[in-house]
């Protein structure tokens, strides 16, 4: 990837519960592209799984997103899709939510690190 392409990746996308996404939006992460597509998805108990999968696939394919933050409980719902994502950009980082603590044993990035270090 050239430096020009990396420079164009300036956004952070967020997928998670309302409190997490709202907090990050208040911190200035929110953005809408020219087609009014936001860089975030608020997931509730009523959010259908295909909508979460579609949002992740969309964020993963966008050339303006450098990082995708996803709460670990939502990441668990789309774990096969996360594990299949191997591109360096956008980087996918799992974060805790208010309702569920972070578990490093589930994190796809941590799994790859353990595999590289031979401790898996």
UniProtKB/TrEMBL annotation:
Asked if the Swiss-Prot or TrEMBL record annotates the protein with the keyword Ion transport, the reply is yes
Molecular function terms in GO for this entry?
A: proton-transporting ATPase activity, rotational mechanism
Entry GO CC: fungal-type vacuole membrane; proton-transporting V-type ATPase, V1 domain
Query: Could you tell me the keywords of this UniProt record?
Result: Hydrogen ion transport, Ion transport, Transport
PANTHER family per record: V-TYPE PROTON ATPASE SUBUNIT F (PTHR13861:SF2), VACUOLAR ATP SYNTHASE SUBUNIT F (PTHR13861)
> How does the annotation summarize its subunit structure?
V-ATPase is a heteromultimeric enzyme composed of a peripheral catalytic V1 complex (components A to H) attached to an integral membrane V0 proton pore complex (components: a, c, c', c'', d, e, f and VOA1).
Per the record, the similarity remark reads: Belongs to the V-ATPase F subunit family.
Q: Entry's NCBIfam families?
A: V_ATP_synt_F
Role this protein plays: Subunit of the V1 complex of vacuolar(H+)-ATPase (V-ATPase), a multisubunit enzyme composed of a peripheral complex (V1) that hydrolyzes ATP and a membrane integral complex (V0) that translocates protons. V-ATPase is responsible for acidifying and maintaining the pH of intracellular compartments.
Name under which the protein is recorded: V-type proton ATPase subunit F
Q: What is the lineage of its organism?
A: Eukaryota, Fungi, Fungi incertae sedis, Chytridiomycota, Chytridiomycota incertae sedis
């Amino acid at each position: 990837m050239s430096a020009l392409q990396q420079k164009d990746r300036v956004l952070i996308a967020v997928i998670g519960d309302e409190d997490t996404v709202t907090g990050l939006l208040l911190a200035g992460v929110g953005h809408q592209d020219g087609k009014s597509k936001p860089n975030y998805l608020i997931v509730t108990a009523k959010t259908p799984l295909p909508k979460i999968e579609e949002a992740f696939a969309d964020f993963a394919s966008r050339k303006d997103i450098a990082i995708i933050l996803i709460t670990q409980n939502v990441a668990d719902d789309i774990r096969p899709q996360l594990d299949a994502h191997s591109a360096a950009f956008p980087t996918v980082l799992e974060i805790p939510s208010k309702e569920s603590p972070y578990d490093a044993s589930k994190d796809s990035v941590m799994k790859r690190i353990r595999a590289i270090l031979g401790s898996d």
